[in-house]
Amino acid sequence: MIHRSRARIAVIVTLAILAFILILAPYIAPFDPTQVKMEERLKPISMEHLLGTDHLGRDVFSRILTGAQTTVGASFLILFISLLVGVPFGLLSGYLGGKIDRIFMRIVDAFMTFPDYIVAIILSGFLGPGMFNLVLAIVMVKWVGYARLARSVVLTEKQKDYISMAKINGMSSLNILRRHMIPHVTGNVMVLATLDIGKIILMIASLSYIGLGAQPPAPEWGAMLNEAKGFFYNAPQLMLIPGLSIMMVVLIFNLLGDYLRDHFDVKNQKG
Amino acid sequence: MRVVGQEILTVKNLSKEYVCGHKAVDQVSLTVNKGECLGIVGESGSGKSTLARCLLALEKIDEGEILLKEKSLYNANKKSLHPVRSEIQAVFQNPSASLNPKLKIIDSLMEPLDFQRKIQPSFLMDIRNQRTKMAERLFEMVGLPSKYLSYYPHELSGGQKQRVIIARAISIEPALIILDEPTASLDVSIQAKILNLLKDLQEDLGISYLFISHDLAAVNFMSQRIIVMKQGQIVDQCSKHDLFSDRRHPYTKDLLHVFEA
């Protein structure tokens, strides 16, 4: 129990720091993240440049901070849109059942046939590289998971007597969904979402790494990795720093996912 | 023999067939009078529960008519079903499934009153706007301490949960409560307590019951009249006192035989 509460505090503290950085990034950043200074290129870590400078003399610390806004911010945006599309889709499909359910689920199946990365790459290819198109592409592959999850929860709960009771009590379908279905769906969806956000961050970073996401000179962690790969022997920190940043953020969100999974299980709570 | 009184529920020639062609309820007619408990006995698969679901307007019916306080349950579109809904409540077999595990007991308990604001039950009239007080009074009526109100369903025993559900069923002072095997999942000593509670509440509130069970002893204890169902049809009906008479249908005698043994 001690370990779990410690883990919880650790997760909350790191999340708070992360949120702080994300919101205040432009104010904390000591330099303009896109300002090129060729005379200062590839400087090692120092007091002036906390994490050194890159091949164009830009301050890496500032780029990591503002890059966090792009990478993590876009992940949240993707997640938010996926939830907004997927959850109501799944709720309705499961609750209404019948023909509507069959049609909805065939649509979902069609989306699920393709592997995530392939769809994202093809879509970005068609729509052209750029952050907006990347968001769109990842939403296209991510929303189906939430639709399926919401639907499966609704299908299990729909059978139970308390839903019959709610109908006997004259509750409208909308009220039943809101009062009885949503609390069941929320817990599951939140856990999947926090586990997913790590994957989405990785996806954004890797697609940016191959040049489909953020376009230079905008700072983005994956794109920074890409730019740094040519200088790996001379300045390995240029790859290590964004790489470690990605790793840590993904780890934090995975821990948060574990924590939320325990949290949403009412059976661990005392009334 | 018929008990004279105001008819709360009238069912005429009700039939319900499932898509597979199995006739779950076949030409059933019955009436429930005010303040009366009508028992329905039958083995598993005799159509008792389907009948209950039809009466609660949870299933569509194929044929026949259901009148609740002289208002039809099935000509009704969704809106006119609403006032009819306030006259009927149910207690099902499995108390755990009848409570949403994610909601606190008070929220499940108050669901009918929260969502049907116009209803003014006589025994809650004076405190209709005080949610917690109403919940406490309902709990008192079914003999539960009010501390359970803030608990979650998994923290209560089966018998306690069934009491919560009974409290919920009486909360809107319906004309009729359908009891579909309300004690089947409880152990024997709790069963007796729940049956006694139901009987006391009926005497106090004058609610009619439709008591569905495969347990002839329980039905005999609760009901004034008894209907025996087999394969979706009513094969026999009699008043409680005539249950052991020689004129009973052979199937009823079979059931009685099992019951005596």
From TrEMBL, chain A:
Transmembrane segments: 7-29, 72-96, 117-141, 189-211, 231-257
Any one Gene Ontology cellular component term annotated for this protein: plasma membrane
Pfam families: BPD_transp_1
Domain of life: Bacteria
Subcellular location: Cell membrane
InterPro entries: ABC_transport_permease (IPR053385), BP-dependent_transpt_permease (IPR050366), MetI-like (IPR000515), MetI-like_sf (IPR035906)
Keywords for the protein's UniProt record, in alphabetical order: Cell membrane, Membrane, Transmembrane, Transmembrane helix, Transport
All copies of domain ABC transmembrane type-1, residue ranges: 68-257
Topology term for the membrane: Multi-pass membrane protein
BP GO annotations: transmembrane transport
Chief place where the protein resides: membrane
Family: Belongs to the binding-protein-dependent transport system permease family. OppBC subfamily.
Identification of the protein by name: Oligopeptide ABC transporter permease
Source organism of the structure: Jeotgalibacillus soli
Automatic annotation (TrEMBL), chain B:
Classification via Pfam families: ABC_tran (PF00005)
Protein name, UniProt field: Nickel ABC transporter ATPase
Keyword Nucleotide-binding: yes
Coiled-coil residues: none
One GO MF term attached to the UniProt entry: ATP binding
Organism: Jeotgalibacillus soli
Keywords, sorted A to Z: ATP-binding, Nucleotide-binding, Transport
GO biological process, one term: transmembrane transport
PANTHER family assigned: TRANSPORT ATP-BINDING PROTEIN
Domain ABC transporter, chain residue ranges per copy: 9-256
